[in-house]
Structure formats: structure tokens, C-alpha cells
Amino acid sequence: MSIQRFDVGPRMSEMAVHNGTVYLAGQIAEDGSQDITGQTQQVLAAIDKLLARAGSDKSKILRAQIYIKDLADFAAMNAVWEAWVVPGHTPPRATVQANLARPEWKIEMVVTAAV
Question: For the chain, which terminus, N or C, has the lower number of CB atoms within 10 Å?
Fold first, then answer.
């Protein structure tokens, strides 16, 4: 089966689709000046857009990996997440504290979904 890659760059692709599965690169906020609520909303909007391009949506997420800079932001991030996910279709998820590549980034998410 072939692999379809989206937004291919010299370091990485933004998304790949293979055998009915969508693999997203880590999604970060465009505007790093926002708080965890704003950054989480931006990341989830980016995930929505990418999944739509692949013919999928958030109800088909198979798993999510969340990297958060400060665990003090965990509750605020979860509030945004819980308002966004589809009831009855919440995916398996892991959340870890991590130093992200840029100091202004508060969150990064990696999602795998079915088409």
C-alpha cells in the first residue's frame, strides 16, 4: 500500500496516511503568547483541520499523546480537551510533562486516527 504524505518538508511531514490510518506530527500553537487555554484551543483546531484534509475527524482518533510544559496547567488543558472531544468517542490518551522545543510553547499533541 502506498503512503500519502502532506506538507512534506526537509525535516518532517505534517501528516501521513497509510492503510486507513492518519498519523499527525506534533501540533503546537501558532501564537505562543497565549495561555494554556488558548494554546490548547489552537492545537485542537489544527488537529481538526488536518484530520478533515485526510477525510477523518476527532470521533475517529485512535490515540492521543499530549506533552505539557507545566503540570500546573493540566486542569485548564483538560477543560478545553473535554469540551472538544466527542462524548462516547474519547480516545486512549497519555499526558506527560516535557520541555518543548521553544520556551513559549505550553503544549504539543500527537494524534493517530482512523480514516
Answer: N
pTM, entire model: 0.95
Which ranges constitute the DSSP H helices of the chain?
Answer: 36-53, 74-84
pLDDT truncated to tens, each residue of the chain (115 aa)? 799 999 999 999 999 999 999 999 999 999 999 999 999 999 999 999 999 999 999 999 999 999 999 999 999 999 999 999 999 999 999 999 999 999 999 999 999 999 9
Helices 74-84, 36-53: crossing angle, 10 deg rounding: 40
